[in-house]
Design goal:
The protein is built from 11 helices and 12 strands. It is an alpha/beta fold.
Length: about 325
């Protein structure tokens, strides 16, 4: 199957007061229709910037892309003129932003914002509104339906509400409805369930999985929650300090992690059987990306690091679909999956 999204050797630098930070360092990721990719790692590892780069939403300057390609259905979005890129955003490439407070217009009613998005999407694909005449009425009906699907009570009445009249979790659900209303081919979801309680989180994740199954789209789910990845995603890429250090099917990467960083992340997740004092923290912190360590960026925190790690390792297959960037991976467990 042809790739929906193919990120190739993407590098991103940011000019800061301290110098030039190398925030993405050769990121590579391929997403096909029907796949949900989890993008995981600690804060500051480049997950959100990878998602924003796909939609060309990282301002330049201070950002600079010295190398790499982002191919969306074979077309490099890095080379598209602004008008063509604008036509892709929200229609072909949907985005659920991390912070609903700054991504909803505080002066416009929720209904007007949803209807505007629905009408813009229908300009690209009339089937969004069922090819119905009288686009405004159909767009309003679709807005009500989407609010209901993301769990907003009394959705018709809430069309007249302003963002400040919603709780943080309800605003997050509005952003999810807004991202899904145009049926994008690729959906980038940046921490979409962070502000939601467990029951609503399960509802939203089921909605994402249903949308993928019904409309054959691709999804990149950016999250810290490895449990969400295990339950929702088909594939996962683990990022550390701007590098993808492990990627592959969820069953293999989560079930038998080969990279020391992935193992450390999983070991830090509390489980029902974890007793007091047994929770394993991850020592150290993500390095300064203005002055990153030479070679493997995880080496200063890695219990397996040797002199060989002074050279940056490349992603290599430990199983047919399971790749790891490490000179000393855990191979015994991976071979059993």
């Amino acid at each position: 199957m042809a790739a929906l999204l193919d990120i190739r050797d993407l590098h991103l630098t940011m000019t800061t007061f301290d110098g030039v930070a190398h925030v993405l360092n050769g990121v590579a990721l391929t997403v096909r229709r029907g796949e949900i990719w989890g993008l995981v790692g600690e804060s500051g590892c480049g997950k959100s910037l990878t998602g924003l780069s796909i939609s060309r939403l990282v301002p330049s300057p201070p950002a600079n892309y010295p190398a790499g390609e982002i191919l969306f259905e074979g077309e490099d979005v890095m080379q598209l003129p602004p008008r063509r890129m604008q036509a892709l955003r929200g229609k072909r490439i949907g985005m659920i932003f991390q912070d609903p407070t700054t991504n909803l217009n505080p002066t416009a009613r929720i209904g007007d914002q949803l209807i505007d998005v629905a009408l813009a999407a229908a300009g690209h694909d009339p089937s969004v509104l069922g090819n119905a005449p009288g686009g405004g009425r159909a767009a309003r009906a679709l807005a009500i339906t989407m609010l209901s699907r993301v769990g907003i009570p009394e959705p018709e009445a809430r069309l007249a509400s302003y963002p400040h009249e919603f709780s943080g979790g309800m605003r997050q659900r509005v952003l999810i409805a807004m991202a899904l209303i145009g049926r994008p081919d690729l959906l980038i979801a940046d921490e979409p369930t962070t502000a939601l309680d467990v029951s609503v989180q399960a509802q939203i994740l089921a909605l994402l999985k249903g949308t993928v199954a019904d409309h054959d789209i691709g999804v990149i789910l950016i999250t810290h929650n490895l449990g969400v990845v295990a339950e929702t995603c088909s594939h996962v890429a683990v990022m550390y300090a701007g590098n993808v250090v492990e990627r592959g099917p969820v069953a293999q990467v989560i079930g038998a992690p080969a990279h020391p960083y992935t193992r450390a992340l999983l070991a830090s997740v509390p489980r029902r059987e974890t007793k007091r004092g047994e929770l394993q923290g991850l020592p150290g912190a993500v390095p300064d990306l203005v002055r990153p360590p030479p070679g493997c960026r995880f080496a200063p925190r890695c219990p397996r690091a040797t002199a060989a790690c002074a050279t940056l390792p490349k992603l290599e297959a430990v199983l047919p679909l399971h790749e790891v960037a490490c000179y000393h991976p855990y191979l015994e467990e991976a071979a059993l999956v």
